[in-house]
Design brief:
Blueprint: H1 4-19, E1 24-25, E2 37-42, E3 47-56, E4 59-64, E5 69-73, E6 77-82, E7 88-89, E8 92-93, E9 117-122, E10 126-132, E11 137-144, E12 155-157, E13 160-166, E14 169-179, E15 188-199, E16 203-214, E17 217-218, E18 223-231, E19 236-246, E20 250-261, E21 265-273, H2 275-280, E22 285-294
Antiparallel strand pairs: 1-6, 2-3, 2-6, 3-4, 4-5, 7-8, 9-10, 9-22, 10-11, 11-12, 11-13, 12-14, 13-14, 14-15, 15-16, 16-17, 16-18, 18-19, 19-20, 20-21, 21-22
């Protein structure tokens, strides 16, 4: 028989898989590097992309990506953002991935920037928020609505740290605290985890280890996770998140899906599966969520 903590963690994974799955400058701060690529949002809503050719009195001269020369009055600029060369793909600007810090539920080692946050909703009644307290530390939490009105809803808290250790390597870790309320016979338990992410925010792989915590005792064997995402185009990516949970033998839970996104939102359409599920539903259990990003990096 599997230990009690395994049953608790299995319920946690079932719940949380359903529950949670740049630098900006203002107009007056014109980059001194006249070769900088920039995105300029005008007061009238027009967006210009290109390189600064030169500066004048109250105006900048821009060469757009289509080769057009434009003079841009500073007093008509709402916001100017520097653009990395990695954001240009065959002459097309790709906005920053708005949902790089998580796959479906599980985290990558990337962290929200200070002042950024997002709201995520799964199956309409599962809700979570995360907020970047610093560039290296974020705090989040979630609650489900089915038992909210009974006075004992399930909820989770998810503090996390993340930092870059190399050009394409990041490390992170955190703690998931869960209270299932009326959904489980064990009210309080959690997972302490560490993750390593290799790649960029548009194409990456993450490997992690997590230890279940029940009654203040850590499990003897870790949960193993491996996840990845790859951006196919400006607005589409593939995403996969996979868990191996220790029981009498290690028990797998995996997912695969597609992510659609804009500059401030993302929608995941995926399937959660394992051998037991596949014996009943070959393609797995449908998973749907959406997220909306808010706030701006604070410098």
């Amino acid at each position: 028989m599997a230990p009690n903590y395994v049953n608790a963690i299995s319920r946690t994974l079932t719940l949380v898989c359903c529950l949670f799955f740049t630098a900006t400058v203002f107009a007056q701060d014109v980059p001194r590097d006249t070769a900088s690529s920039v995105k300029i949002e005008m007061l009238d809503g027009t967006v210009l992309l290109g390189k600064i050719k030169s500066r004048g009195d109250g105006v900048i001269f821009l060469t757009t990506m289509s080769g057009v020369e434009a003079s841009v009055p500073l007093n008509q600029i709402k916001e100017m953002t520097t653009i990395s060369s990695t954001s240009i793909h065959k002459g097309e600007y790709w906005f920053e991935n708005p949902n790089a810090t998580r796959y479906l539920f599980g985290p990558s080692a990337f962290n929200l920037k200070k002042g950024e946050g997002y709201y995520q909703n799964t199956y309409l009644f599962l809700n979570s928020f995360n907020y970047g307290v610093t560039d290296y530390f974020s705090i989040g939490g979630g609650i489900e609505l089915l038992t909210l009105f009974n006075g004992s809803p399930a909820f989770v808290l998810t503090p996390k740290v993340g930092f870059r250790t190399g050009p394409k390597t990041s490390m992170g870790g955190g703690r998931l605290y869960a209270n299932l309320g009326e959904l489980g016979d064990r009210s309080n338990f959690g997972i302490a985890y560490g993750v390593v992410t290799r790649g960029t925010v548009d194409k990456n792989l993450t490997v992690g280890l997590g230890w279940g915590i029940v009654d203040n005792e850590f499990s003897s064997r870790p949960i193993i996770t491996f996840s990845g995402m790859t951006r196919l185009s400006k607005k589409i990516a593939l995403v996969s998140e996979n868990w191996i949970v220790p029981a009498d033998i290690y028990y797998p839970l995996f997912s695969y899906g597609i992510r659609f996104f804009g500059e401030k939102m993302a929608i995941d359409l995926a399937f959660i599966n394992n051998p037991d599920i596949a014996s009943e539903v070959v393609i797995g259990i449908p998973y749907v969520d959406f997220m909306v990003k808010f706030g701006k990096p604070k410098r």
